[in-house]
Input
Amino acid sequence: MSDIADRVKKIVVEHLGVEEDKVTESASFIDDLGADSLDTVELVMAFEEEFGIEIPDDAAETIQTFGDAVKFISGAV
Amino acid sequence: MFDLSGKNALVTGASGGIGGDIARALHKAGAVVTLSGTRLAPLEALAEELGERAHVVTCDLSDAASVEALPKAAAEKMGSVDVLVNNAGITRDNLFMRMSDEEWQSVLDVNLTSTFRLCRGVLRGMMKARWGRIVNISSVVGATGNPGQGNYAASKAGMVGMSKSLAAEVASRGITVNCVAPGFITTAMTDKLNDEQKARILTQVPAGRMGTSGEIAAAVLYLASAEAGYVTGTTLHVNGGMAMI
Output
């Protein structure tokens, strides 16, 4: 697994308090990992800080799963 | 009780009578304060009076860019904004039939839209800190209405609905959002009323006197405190019984 994916997973595990093995490529933050809409905003904020990037609102809306997040961030850093 | 040591507070309209006393009360409770307003001189005079733990950032609340910059500037001075008091407000009174779009819009912009923008501007820091206090200064006329103040009453009632919505969104993050609704308070503005006008107003106030800015400040201090952590989305009416709601 890439370094970016590791760092994203760490944030997700810490923020949502879920088991690491639940955070799979296709795991949806809301449907599978128990996030509410405010959690997803906070996750995006945490990603922005961890990677020093800006994630615009329209892009943030497309980040539904762990895989989406890794893909977006990999393309943005 | 009500110890704000280690907390950083931003107060808008701090050059006015009520805002100044709110800043004094938070400062006395141990908070670092950033005083904001349009006029630099009275803010600097208040900062000098308070001594340490007081900063000044001017802001024109009718200017969107200036409003967006304020929370950032306050956080730079203090390290964070843990307590936000949206106290600044203007009136442009006129009979409804005569009220211009400009009179309507300017009051909504300064009183309501700037409050929205400032709340939004401090949320990220409060969410990360898992602690925050937002106190929006509404008015009794936001609940009762007042002839000649359709714009002002709308802005102050709007503040209440906005605060409740935000309170529900962020309650799980340790952030509370409440309003304080003053009734008739002795300020430079009410000093201009003559005795007859004052007497007429007081017939509507069971307490039989005007309130003081210190009594508003005490309500704000309570809502800003750790002790008020389970109070959110409410409006604390401080009006001598003028409207029991």
User: Anything to note?
Assistant: The CA atoms of residues 13 and 20 of chain A lie 6 Å apart. Chain A has a mean pLDDT of 94.
